[in-house]
Each structure stands twice: as C-alpha cells, then as structure tokens.
Design goal:
about 425 residues, 2 domains, about 55% helix, alpha+beta, 12-stranded mixed β-sheet
C-alpha cells in the first residue's frame, strides 16, 4: 500500500516537472491569495498587539479625563460640531482638590516639549527628548515601572524638588557604563538630580517612549510657560467593582468645575483604557474580514486555474492512462495520482504564500516598530484552505481520468 502511494507521489512530481511553466503560474496564483491572507493578518496582528499592549499596561481599572472623547462628532464639512475648552491647570488643580472618591489615585501630567536637549557634563543629546511634567501617581496610573532607583514621592512634588526620572535610552546615549542615579543633568539651564531610570517601553508609531524625562509638574510649569497647555487627568480605581461609581463622581465633579447646567452636554471627554482596546479590536476586525475576502477571491481564481491545468494534463496523458489501466491500474489508483498532483501544487502555493505573507508582516512591523508575532491561526487556515481547494479543483479531473475507457485511451493520439 505504501509503495503504491509512494509511486503515485513520484509520478505526480514527474508530471509537475513536465509542465513546469503552467505549474509555476498556478503556484504563483495560489501563493498570491495566501500572501494576501497571511500578510494582511500578520500586519493587523502586529498593529493590534502593539496598541493593545500600550493601553493594557494602564490596566482595565483606569480612566482619564480629556478634551474630547475618542470618537468626535463631526459636521458635514468635516469640522468639529463643538469645540471643547482645553483642560487647564486651574481645572486640574480644582479637580484634585474636590475629587475625593475612596480607593482612587489621581495623576496629572502634561507634555512640556518634544524637542528638549539634555546635557550631562560635556555630553548632550540631540534636541529630540520629550519632557513631561507629572505628579507622584503618574507612573502607577500609566503602568510604568522603575528599573533603577525610585519613583517621585509626594514630598518631591509638593516641594518642587529638582529631581527627574529618565527613559532607558539615556543609559546608552549619556551614561553608557556609568551608574546614573544621583548624577545631575541640565535641561534649559535647570539642573536636575536623577532619582530613577524607567523600564524600556520601546517605540510605537515612530514615537520613542524611552527617550523622555519626567520632572515634577510645578517645576515643568516654571520652565515651560507656553500658553494654553492641555493637561491630562488619569484616575486609577483600586477596586474594579467601584469603577462606574468613580467615573460618575468624576463626571459630576468636572461638570461642576466647568459650571455646566443640567441641560448642557459635557464639554470634555472621559475614556477608559479597556474601551480604547475594544475599539481598536473592532477596527481590526474590518481589516481581517477584508483580508479574508481578498484571499478567498484570489484563491477562487487559483482553483479555476488549478482545475484547468489538471484537465489539460488529463487530456495530454490519455494514452498513458490507458496503458496504466491495461496493466491493471484501478480507478482509485488513477484518481489518487491526479489528486496527489493537485495537492502537491496547492501546498507549494501555500508555502510560497505563507513565506511571502510572514515576510510582509515582519517588514511592516519593522518599519513601523510594532511587536511582530507569527500569525499561527492564519497559517493553519491557509494550509487547510489550500488543501480543500486542491481537493475540489482536482476532483473533476481525477474522476474524468479514472473513468476513461482503456481501449479508447490507447487509440488516442
């Protein structure tokens, strides 16, 4: 039995070699369909994994107050229907004073600049460092860990101490093999003592999260005095069961700060970190469906091409089939041979498509600095789909070959 199967595989491979050009074209067509499926799903997985990991680090028990909701209503002209005021420092300070919901921690922060130059001794960085003004709860609420040293204390924030936390990239650019804790750096002529180094978070969308400096919020306000600074408020709830109540209390408190009447809608937004993850997941679903539609259409075309090449093969090998039948080959043996040819061609196309798809996803992740992972589900489905397509495309040619009359086949020229 095994020797017969091996012989069928050998004959199938010899037949494929004899019509190499048509076989290559069919393999390429199948490969393009699988490439579309695996490539798009690889890119989508990399995108979703990176964004989700960034937001997931904040935890599902965190929400933030911001100028706008994640989804902004727009008018027909594409402009915002309503322009919300920024979240000013007075808003933040009043919220910190009035919001006293139990088991919560409130952090405030703002991005002072994205083009700072940091100096250490005779060394200095390029003017591309991000500087943030934060309070003592910022790291915990954003899921950021300290790799070396310590976090800010409430005394650092209230006393406006000239201390700072650095991203991990500074270990390579400024300090190299030197211990940075306790050393002094200079930003805009102001000297800061380094108290900690943050864990690496990598980059996303070209934004290097490891090249930043965190300093006490009041100190940052003294150095960077640009008008209309938009602050961020983040609230972490220790007990997740109290999340809804904490959000309601935050909305009521901020509405009172803004002086809104009961009939007026909110002129600010509230977002939960897990809501953002769910929205991102819903967006990527559309991309995944598109990938399936494109690949199915392409694979349908390839199945027609595969059936055509096998029908041509049956016609060209009519006399060979007649000889084999005359020598005692059964219908099942003949049909198995042609099935083996279609399956081999299909799997070659599948392998080609998977390789191209994985490379496409890897390059996409590399260019945009996303987290790449092999799309195992897509690869498994691609293998199953091509196997099924090969069986369907090869069923009619195999049946036709098996039913050929041996006497008529031997007469065929």
């Amino acid at each position: 039995m095994f020797s017969l199967f091996r012989e069928n595989v050998r004959i199938a491979l010899e037949s494929i070699k004899s019509q190499l050009l048509r076989t290559i074209l069919t393999i390429v067509i199948i490969g393009i369909g699988i490439w579309a499926l695996v490539g798009i799903l690889s890119a989508v997985n990399a995108l979703e994994s990176t964004i989700s990991s960034n937001f997931a680090s904040m935890g599902a028990n965190t929400f933030s107050l911001r100028q706008y909701e994640f989804e902004v209503q727009s008018s027909g002209s594409g402009e915002r229907e309503k322009i919300n005021p920024i979240i000013s420092y007075n808003d933040v300070r009043e919220f910190m004073t009035k919001y006293d919901f139990p088991l919560t921690k409130t952090s405030l922060s703002f991005r002072a600049t994205g083009a700072a130059e940091v100096k250490y001794g005779s060394e200095k960085t390029d003017p591309e460092v991000q500087v943030y003004g934060v309070n003592e709860n910022y790291l915990e609420n954003t899921g950021t860990e300290v790799e070396l040293g310590r976090n800010f204390t409430i005394f650092d924030i209230e006393n406006n101490n000239k201390v700072c936390l650095l991203g991990s990239d500074f270990l390579k650019s400024l300090f190299k093999d030197e211990d940075p804790i306790g050393k002094t750096i200079s930003i805009r002529g102001v000297r800061f003592t380094i108290i900690g180094i943050l864990e690496s978070k990598g980059s996303s969308f070209g934004n290097n999260q490891d090249l930043k400096v965190l300093i006490p919020v009041q100190v940052a306000r003294g150095i960077y005095t640009q008008p209309n600074i938009n602050y961020n408020i983040s609230v972490k709830v220790d007990d997740k069961n109290m999340m809804e109540a904490a959000q309601d209390e935050a909305i009521i408190t901020f509405r009172n700060i803004r002086g809104l009447s009961p009939l007026e809608s909110n002129n600010f937004g509230l977002e939960r970190s897990d809501d953002l993850i769910n929205r991102i997941a819903s967006i990527t679903v559309y991309l995944e469906v598109s990938a399936w539609i494109i690949s199915i259409i392409t694979i349908l075309g390839s199945s027609i091409a595969l059936m055509n090449i096998m029908l041509v093969s049956v016609t060209e090998r009519t006399r060979e089939i007649g000889i084999r039948k005359a020598l005692g080959a059964k219908r099942a043996t003949i049909s198995t041979q042609f099935f083996m040819e279609t399956i081999v061609i299909g799997q070659f196309g599948c392998i080609l498509g998977i390789i191209l798809g994985v490379l496409t996803g890897f390059l996409f992740a590399k260019i945009f600095e996303f987290n790449f992972s092999l799309p195992w589900v897509a690869m498994i489905w691609a293998t199953i789909i091509t196997f099924i397509v090969a069986l369907i495309a090869g069923s009619y040619p195999a049946t036709k070959a098996a039913r050929l009359d041996p006497i008529e086949s031997l007469r065929y020229e």
